[in-house]
Amino acid sequence: MKTPSDSRNRMSEVVLPNDTNPYGTLFGGRLLSLMDKCAAISAMRHTEMVCVTVAIDSVDFNSPIHLGELVTIESWVNRAFKTSLEVEVIVNAENILTQQKRQCNHAFFTFVAINDQRQPTSIIPLNPENELENQRFEKAAMRRELRLYMKGRISLEDTVHLKDDLIAEISRKDLQ
Ligand SMILES: CC(C)(COP(=O)(O)OP(=O)(O)OC[C@H]1O[C@@H](n2cnc3c(N)ncnc32)[C@H](O)[C@@H]1OP(=O)(O)O)[C@@H](O)C(=O)NCCC(=O)NCCS
Q1: How many CB atoms lie within 10 A of CB 166?
Q2: What domains lie within the chain, and their CATH numbers?
Q3: How far is the CA of 54 from the centre of ligand 1 (A)?
Q4: pLDDT digits (tens, 9 = 90+) for 58-97
Q5: Ligand 1 nearest-atom number relative to CA 144
Q6: Is the separation of the CB atoms in 74 and 121 below 8 Å?
């Protein structure tokens, strides 16, 4: 078994002119690419296998990141399932001159470990070590079910981790 700390990854980049949109702020696609790379390293550290991105949950761009600022991306594994795993990613921006920091983005990535034949392969479990990691571990199971339900891969009857009130809410939306 491995712990979330074993997969923790941290990457920093300075925003250069090539990374920006016409407004001089970091281009969203460039940031997604960095987040995906950081998260993939966490996934591969945990599994010790090649991992491919299968899903990215909604990503909010809360605060623009400006030319010359430092972007720091951090990721870790929240939970390992059979062949897939959830990686949480946070993005912070820092103005190096003023030392001011802010959190800009947050997202959950799902990866699948694959073998030489590019088939999904079983992975080792994750062992959360503290209360926060336990909460992340529990919520990851709920998010997985929600993801798979939204993709039509499972039905509501197959869910065991989703809370009743959320199921009721989803069911109401289904009826509209
Ligand atoms: C990843 C891939 C091999 C999975 O193939 P598949 O036929 O869906 O495989 P399975 O049905 O066995 O699912 C494998 C795992 O992925 C999970 N999964 C599949 N689609 C998912 C989705 N949309 N969201 C979350 N999990 C998903 C399944 O739940 C399963 O997890 P588990 O074993 O832990 O329960 C295949 O979808 C693929 O090659 N995708 C392209 C990956 C890629 O190129 N990524 C880079 C994008 S540019």
Answers
A1: 14
A2: 4-127 (3.10.129.10), 129-176 (no CATH)
A3: 5
A4: 888 889 999 999 999 999 999 999 999 999 999 999 999 9
A5: 25
A6: no
